[in-house]
Amino acid sequence: MTKLMNIEASPSSRIATQPGVARRALNGLTVVLPWTIIGGLLWAGLFIKPQPVGSSVTPPALERRDQFYGLAQAADGAVLAAGSYGKILSIGADGKIRRLPTPTDRTLQDIATWDSSHAVAVGNDGVILRSEDGGQHWSAVTDVPRSDVANKLNRVRLGKDGLAIATGEMGALLASHDYGKHWQRLREEEDVAWNDAALLDDGRLLVVGEFGRILLSDDLGQQWEEIPAPVPVSLMSVSFRDAANGVAVGVEGTVLVTSDGGRQWSPVQLETGDHLFNVLWNAGKKQWLAVGALGRWVTGTPTADGIDWQTGTVDPRDMGWHTGALASATQVWLAGDGIGRWDGQHWSPLKP
User: Fold this and answer.
1) Mean of pLDDT over the chain
2) Which InterPro entries match (predicted)?
3) Fewest Cβ atoms closer than 10 Å to its Cβ: which of 121, 202, 278, 309?
């Protein structure tokens, strides 16, 4: 009996019979464990570098979120489209779409080309881009005149020998004579948005903007004459087919015509109140074409008795807006809430 009573208990039985020891061990583990986890995470963050899994995904050139505002014809037959996020796309004759690199993420409002080498694009925050290789590469112009209030540039129009006129907010009327390298103001800053300009064949310059305002200059902006407009609403675009005959369009379905080089304008009564954002003379079809909101189009065909005006929508299933228009061969490219081609009967949008 004495030997049995002197047998030592096992280690586990000793701990079990000493609750104070077990409690202290558990408390120590509770204190040390969180710091161990934190230390491990810090070590992993400092010394373990993540490795990519699989290949990176390149976004498509044309995405559903994109909006495009200006179109231009490249010398190789491609169409250039400028729009949101600083995007410039090249749409080849074979239908292939490429995104061209640009140095900005500002929205581009318009684009134009002089020849196979020189091109220019303008947009929000006073951004102006220029290209000397037909639009394949672009650089930003750094000395653009700026306002302290607003600097959105709405449109750019081109003339001979490197002449360009850009229009925009706060009275922006900018001119370049060297293919977009340098720009200067043609008028002092004022609280009005100039939306478009037309360089007439005889060297005159006509500008349209907010509140129905029209300016005319016989010497490319040295002196100006304000032309009374028959409407008070904003004029968004203007185009001439020769030195005498022109059309201006604007909000609320406004269409104005002139036959004396822009000194007198007459309104056209149309059965639409949809805003019109762009107008051009389609030499191939020998007619005026205006486009705007809700898929609206307006055509004007000169006849012996005047101009025959027609209106409709490009497609009842596609009620998007269009600010860019470019006549190309037998069809017209339209840009806005998407890009597509219209042949006067069928609307064919490009799919992302």
Assistant:
1) 89
2) PSII_CF48-like_dom (IPR028203), WD40/YVTN_repeat-like_dom_sf (IPR015943)
3) 202
